[in-house]
Amino acid sequence: MSAQKMREEILRLLQKNARISDQEIADRLAVEVGQVSATIQAMQADHTIIGYSTLINEEMLPEPPVRALIEVEVLPERDGGFDRVARMTSKFPEVKAVALLSGSYDLSLEVTGKTLQEVAFFVSSKLSTIPGIRATRTHFLLKKYKQAGFILHEDEEYERLKVTP
Amino acid sequence: MSDSKSPRSRLADHIRDLPRSGIRDFFDIVSTMDDVISLGIGEPDFVTPWRIREATINAIERGFTNYTSNLGMLSLRKSICRRVAEDFEVRYDPHTECIVTVGVSEALDLILRAILNPGDEVIYHEPCYVSYAPSISMIHAVPVPVVTREQNRFALDPADVEAKITPKTKVLLLNFPNNPTGANLTMQQKTELARIAIKHDLLVITDEIYAELTYSDRTTCIAALPGMKERTVLLHGFSKAYAMTGYRLGYGCGPRDLIDAMMRVHQYSMLCASSIAQAAGIEAFDNSQAEMEEMKIEYWQRRNVIVKRLNNMGLTCVTPEGAFYVFPNITSTGLSSKEFATRLLKEKRVAVVPGTAFGACGEGYVRCSYATSLEEIEIAMARIAEFIR
Fold first, then answer.
1. Cα(B298)–Cα(A28) distance, rounded to whole angstroms?
2. Tell me, what's the ipTM?
3. SS3 assignment, position B251
4. CA separation (Å) from A25 to A35, B141, B337?
5. Which residues pair with A112 in a beta bridge?
C-alpha cells in the first residue's frame, strides 16, 4: 500500500470512529501496527489531523445547549479581505465554527450558549460591535437530523434472512 | 389431480430426485433460534444505496410500471453495454447482444435452456453456488463437476477441465470470483481455459456476479480473449456490487444468436424483468459508483480481519481474492463440515454454512460470509475460537 493510500484509508477509518485502535486499523488494512502508528503521528505533526472530538446527540443531554447559525456580512479590507474579522470572531469560545462562504453573506458562524438570551446577548454586544461587521442574521437551531454524516433518528429497519445462498 | 389408486408419481422424475439445497436445510434450523450471529448470509449487509431506492420510488411516481421490451429497456441495455465495455474490455451491441433478466439465476437458466439438449454435458467447478448442478439437471443435461483444491487457492486447473471433456461436452460454466471460496483465476489460467474451449468447440458461460468485489487487480475477462467473444456468454447482475439482491436484476451479454435464443425462452416464461427494478439499475450504473466503492472497501477490510483471525486460531484459510466469503479448512478439529456447523450453531450460536452445501468436495470446509458488520465478525471469531479449543 502506498504511503498516500495508507493516509487516506486511516483518515477514512478515524473519521468514522476516532476511538478505533491502531491495531484494529492495522488488521483492517492488513499492514503492521507500527506503520499505522507512525502514519498517524506524522499526520498529527503536519496538522492533517487537528484533533479528535466526540459526536454528541445533544437531545440526550439534561441541559442541551442552544445553538445558532449566524450569517455575518463583512466589509472587506484592502489587505487581508475577511481574514481579520474571521480571526477575531474565532477567538470567542462561544463560537464553535467559522467559515468564509460565497453567496449573499460572507461569514458563517456557529455559536452556542446556555440559553437563547445568552446567545442573543453575545451577538448584540460582542459580535455586531466588531469593526468591519456590517450586519448579522441569527438562526436558532431547532432540531438536528444528520450530524457529521450520522443520521440521528434512523427510521429504517429491514429484515434479512439468516442464511442465504 | 392426485389419484390415490394410480401408481404414477405426481412429480416429474427429475424433480422428485432433485435435492433440497443444503443451505435451505440449515436455514430451517437457524431460523428457529434467537441470538445467532450469522456468517451464513450470501448477500450484502448494506441496504441498497438511497440514491437507487429514490430512483425506484421516482419510477413508481412517474407510473413507470408497465411491461418493457422483452430484452429490457434500451436505455438500461445501453448503460450495461457501456459499463461492460469499460470493466470487462468487451463490446456488445445493446440492440442485439444484451438481455436484461430477473437476476443472474434467470439468465443462467435461459442460456442453459437455450443451448443444451438432453444428455449434453456441462463442465463446472465445485465447490460452487448451489444452483449450478440443479439448473443443469432440470433441463435433462448432465452436470460434470471438476474439483477445485485448496492447494491451488481453489482456482480451476485447466488440466482438470480437459480431463473431463467427452464428445458430449458442450459448455464450460465458470464463476470467479467464486462463491463459496472467494477464489479467482489467473490470467494464465484464463488463457489456457480459452484455448481448451476453442480446441473442443465449447461454449463458455461466465458468471461474473462478484466481479466488482475483486480485491487485487482485475484481469481481463475470458470473453475478451481472442476468439472467445463469439463463444462466451457473460452473466452479471446488480445484486452483490450494489446491494440490490431483492430487486432481482441481472443481465446476459453474448453473441447475437445466443441472446436471441435466450430472449425467446425469456419472452414466453418471464416476459421481462421488473420495470421499476430496471429504472433502479440505470441509477446504479450511471450514478452509484462511489457508494459501490465504499462498500467494496468495507468488504476488503473485513476480509483482512477475518482471514487473520481464522488463521491465528488455527483454521487455515486461503486469502480470498474476491466476493465476500472465506472458506476455512476445519479438518484440524476432527469434525465433519456438517458436525462443525451444527455444533457451532448449537453450542456457540454462530451460523456458518457446511462446505458440503456447495458440492461433496466441500467436506472439510465451512463457508463464512463477511457480509456482516465487523463488530459481529469479531464476536463470531471469538466464539469460534472458544469452540475449537
1. 9
2. 0.83
3. strand
4. 10, 50, 32
5. A67
Count CB neighbours of A50 within 10 A: 8
Give the residue carrying C-alpha cell 479467482.
B184
Per-residue b or e along B150-183, where b marks 16 or more CB atoms closer than 10 Å to that residue's CB: beebbbbbbeebbeebeeebbbbbbbbbbbbbbb
d(CA A15, nearest CA chain B) in Å: 14
**A41 vs A23: CA distance, rounded Å:** 14
> What sign for the dihedral angle of Cα B365, B369, B374, B375?
negative
How many residues make up chain A in this entry?
165
Please list the alpha-helical segments (H only) found in B156-288. Answer: 158-163, 187-199, 256-269, 275-287
- Name the residue facing B129 among A28, A161, A165 (closest C-beta): A165
Supply the pTM of this predicted model: 0.91
With residue B173 as reference, give the H or E element that holds it.
strand B169-174
DSSP A163: B
For residue range A62-121, list pLDDT tens digits in order.
Answer: 999 999 999 999 999 988 889 999 999 999 999 999 999 999 999 999 999 999 999 999
Contacts of A162 in chain B (CB under 8 A): 27, 30-31, 36, 38, 40-41, 351
